[in-house]
Amino acid sequence: MAKAPTKKQKQDDRQLIRVFDTTLRDGEQAPGNSMNIEEKLRVAKQLQKMNVDVIEAGFPIASEGDFEAVKLVAQQIKGPQIAGLCRAGDKDIDRAWEALKYAGDKGRIHTFIATSDIHMQYKLKMEPAKVLAAAIKAVKRAASYTPNVEFSCEDATRTRLPFLAEVVEAVIDAGATTVNIPDTVGYTIPFEYFNIITYLKEHVRNIDRAIISVHCHNDLGLSVANSIAAVQAGARQVECTINGIGERAGNCSLEEFIMALRTRHDILPFTTNVATEQLTPASRLLTNITGIGVQPNKAIVGANAFAHEAGIHQHGMMMDKSTYEIMTPESVGLSASALVLGKHSGRHAFKQRLEELGHELDDDKLNRAFERFKALADLKKEVFDEDLDAIVMEESREDVKYRLGHITVTCGSFAVATATVQLEIDGEPVRTAELGDGPVDATLKAIKKLTKTKAKLVQYNVGAITSGTDAQGEVTVRVAEGNNVVVGKGSSTDIIEASAKAYVHALNRLNLRQKRLKETV
Ligand SMILES: CC(=O)SCCNC(=O)CCNC(=O)[C@H](O)C(C)(C)COP(=O)(O)OP(=O)(O)OC[C@H]1O[C@@H](n2cnc3c(N)ncnc32)[C@H](O)[C@@H]1OP(=O)(O)O
Ligand SMILES: CC(C)C(=O)C(=O)O
Ligand SMILES: [Mg+2]
């Protein structure tokens, strides 16, 4: 027989904040952040490792791809609950459960409808009574599939409080076990949000039968502060995203929220299940996948978050780290590694460092990654963690039609840039030369000619992953053909080679996507 929880366990549970990660749903909604199924699964595996409580994997009715991604995450991820979003309508809910059912009792249907006057009048064109009825009907339908139902009052912070309380009470009666009070447009401020949650606790008769969740957007830069205020008022689930990505200015940043609770435990006596040393690997994984970096001064995961350049600070740090660091880099997974990786390093140190960074490769991939690492180490004095991340990302890419062979470029102030490119297409070597407006343009033109692609290059970004003139450059391109838009990434100490790799990567992904589409028709 199960033992009754002790007083301490009950107390701990009351102070436990469930972390609901919506990187794969709200995060992915933001321009530039879309991920394919395989990339979503990779992020979900990292979230599993980080031990978040709930992963919102997508919006199953949005597209076939989103449906498949939610289904795959529901099938493969063990531990966290898996949520899927759906509007308050039968078709959306049925479709969501079709994907979520693979998670069994860990599947959560998350349904929502807007409750503010602005949204009801202008967007939904529905009277409040109709919205209330739709909310109840949706929750009842969701509850017919699973007892794990979350309901969100979209635009809650601009909703009249008595109506908000009425909807929340009704959906709990209908079967919602989590009620989410989102600050959809990032409008509220901490004091007001605290009062909204307090109001609901005082005016909703059955509020103790559900967990109060909050979901904050960052339009005024207050999403983390608002989430903390809500927790202080009694919310026990916080919705957030890696790197704070999401609609417009983004969502509450997972790493900032978690580290605020951990660092200020003295006055925020709450706990989470999150393994904080997985925060940096998660941030880097997402950056690598989307190609969207975080600003250097970003709290917790920015390149400068633990850097000290000013003399007075450096002096303080040498005396005692607590003078200028309120948390350790190790606590967020940024280990000051004792092992410096360079051309004299061996396979053991390489493998161990990859594992510390959260990468598990099978023997074949590990061997190939090691070869790449050695080649890079020959070109650079020191290979940094970011270099390793880039190598692993390249190694774990899908099957390829096009393989980049050699590139020879001539260019200069007075020369017309010329690129000779050799590719393998389905294993056959092909070669051509092109002129261009600069070496990158010439190289990409040559690849376009060889592959005969009709796709348009719609975005090109270049950045240095590491520092110094021998840094790894990383190029991200976005390529579109019809409705298919894919991201390609390439890294190298040679920026022209990185550009070619990124372009070839994008063309391979486009080819794979078109092949899959044909197979499903
Ligand atoms: C605050 C948030 O983040 S909400 C989530 C936002 N995320 C997304 O929208 C991404 C996924 N969305 C999509 O793929 C599409 O918008 C779909 C598939 C959901 C719907 O596509 P379409 O049928 O073409 O509708 P469209 O997006 O143009 O308009 C939304 C419709 O849903 C209705 N609607 C919006 N929210 C809700 C809701 N919660 N419950 C019920 N109906 C809703 C709107 O009133 C509108 O209805 P109408 O078509 O009768 O005018
Ligand atoms: C669907 C809900 C939870 C949402 O994303 C929002 O209101 O911002
Ligand atoms: Mg949102």
Automatic annotation (TrEMBL):
GO terms for cellular component: cytosol. Residues 17-280 form the Pyruvate carboxyltransferase domain. It is an enzyme of class 2 (transferase). Its EC number is 2.3.3.13. It holds the Pfam family HMGL-like. Residues 403-521 are annotated as: Regulatory domain. Its cofactor is Mn(2+). GO terms for molecular function: 2-isopropylmalate synthase activity; acetyl-CoA C-acetyltransferase activity; manganese ion binding. It comes from the Bacteria. The keyword Ligase does not apply. Pathway: Amino-acid biosynthesis; L-leucine biosynthesis; L-leucine from 3-methyl-2-oxobutanoate: step 1/4. The keyword Nucleus does not apply. PROSITE patterns: AIPM_HOMOCIT_SYNTH_1, AIPM_HOMOCIT_SYNTH_2, PYR_CT. InterPro entries: 2-IPM_HCS-like, 2-isopropylmalate_synth_dimer, AIPM/Hcit_synth_CS, Aldolase_TIM, LeuA/HCS_post-cat, LeuA_allosteric_dom_sf, LeuA_bact_synth, PYR_CT. One of its GO terms (biological process) is L-leucine biosynthetic process. Mn(2+) binds at D26, H215, H217, N251. Coiled coil: none annotated. It catalyses: 3-methyl-2-oxobutanoate + acetyl-CoA + H2O = (2S)-2-isopropylmalate + CoA + H(+). Keywords: Acyltransferase, Amino-acid biosynthesis, Branched-chain amino acid biosynthesis, Cytoplasm, Leucine biosynthesis, Manganese, Metal-binding, Transferase. Homodimer. Belongs to the alpha-IPM synthase/homocitrate synthase family. LeuA type 1 subfamily. Catalyzes the condensation of the acetyl group of acetyl-CoA with 3-methyl-2-oxobutanoate (2-ketoisovalerate) to form 3-carboxy-3-hydroxy-4-methylpentanoate (2-isopropylmalate). This is 2-isopropylmalate synthase. It comes from Oryzomonas rubra. The lineage of its organism: Bacteria, Pseudomonadati, Thermodesulfobacteriota, Desulfuromonadia, Geobacterales.
